[in-house]
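Example 5.3 — WD repeat-containing protein 37
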Amino acid sequence: MPIESGSCASARQAKQKRKSHSLSIRRTNSSEQERAGLQRDMLEGQDSKLPSSVRNTLLELFGQIEREFENLYIENLELRREIDTLNERLAGDGQTIDGAELSKGQLKTKASHSTSQLSQKLKTTYKASTSKIVSSFKTTTSRAICQLVKEYVGHRDGIWDVSVAKTQPVVLGTASADHTALLWSIETGKCLVKYVGHVGSVNSIKFHPTEQVALTASGDQTAHIWRYIVQLPTPQPTADCNQVTGEDEVEFSDKDEPDGDGDGSSDCPTVRAPLTSLKSHQGVVIAADWLVGGKQAVTASWDRTANLYDVETSELVHSLTGHDQELTHCCTHPTQRLVVTSSRDTTFRLWDFRDPSIHSVNVFQGHTDTVTSAVFTVGDNVVSGSDDRTVKVWDLKNMRSPIATIRTDSAVNRINVCVGQRIIALPHDNRQVRLFDMSGVRLARLPRSNRQGHRRMVCCSAWCEDHPICNLFTCGFDRQAIGWNINIPALLQEK
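Solution (predicted structure tokens):
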């Protein structure tokens, strides 16, 4: 009668253990419903001031936690058994390989390597499971703190830029690839003015600091300055957009996008010609902004230059050269004559016009891909975002290295900073919008589901800190802009 080897016997024992253990897993899963019902009965028997819907949500979350840790515990037992089996098998092999014994050091090294691999597998499984649990809590928190208030639908193509007027009446402006710029009532979502003066994609829009005048940049190689007159409509009661059903992450198809033909933009007042047209670029004008005071404007172009213009005369004052590739964005300081330009050459540059006789430039190198935008904050800080999936916070007095780095999972588009609260809004290629503080701590992610949020790439964000209804706006290539109400005190308290 043949004698079974030690390695075969240990393998058979491990197989029997796994078989009996799988039976226990099935018994555990079959009793989950009974356990959940028992927990719900116990919860209902306790005195609580929480609403029943909140209590049920908490019960479901804690049930998920229990199941996750139970699965982790079971997997841990399985891995420990596999480690023991491997150690026994290695010990047996150490006595028979090539008729000679392996040294203790070799055996220990081999067993240690196998054990470390299994340990790493256990750590990875634990990290993935706990991440799901933490994500459940963050999703619930984000929905309570970040609420969708209004959707602005009317463009027939993607929206590249969004901006908020700095004078009364406060209106929302959007710039679109459909060759138009639209002004909206923030409260009602109604289109107030349509600008149709460009013959190319409108890539950016900025409002004059003191007048009802807008500055738009276009793919037709020009920037236009045009005046608008708006009369805000009376706000009407709207349905609550914040009740979300289903999962937080849902895939969308093109047929789910808003239909631009069903909006009211076609019957709103139209501005057809600019007050001034700025013409000096030899390529697409990708962005434009007002210098402090509103008497000068700066433009950024794919011809690798930025131009500074006198608004009253339309004359070119300075041509800012030095970037090696196309420019992607430009931004001006709110109180000083400073301009920052970003480029596909992985750098952004700070241009100083405070001294009329000296126009200094500083180059910031820290990204490994296109710098999609760089914006000023309070004090001497600049925040830059890039296609390399990072956002960096810089001190203008120390250009060598950033003071904070935010690493994300998707390319970052045109960022915006809530100056008063120092909160950065990050729009992503993957349709997400995340909020971080200036030290790089993540605060929240705007909710996105099958009923709310952007369905395609989010191109831009803009804060309006003092507005009572919407204090953050986003726009995307799904042809809509969205107004959000961010409970900033609660957001900072969660941090």
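Remark. The two ends are 71 Å apart (CA to CA).
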